[in-house]
Amino acid sequence: MNIGQAAKASGVSAKMIRYYEETGLIPAAGRTASGYRDYSDTDVHMLRFIRRARDLGFAVAEISELLGLWRDESRQSAEVKRLAQGHIEALKKKIADLQDMEQTLTMLVNSCQGDHRPHCPILQRLETDREDENLSIQPRAGAIPRPLQ
Question: Which residues form a coiled coil (predicted)?
Answer without folding.
Answer: 81-108
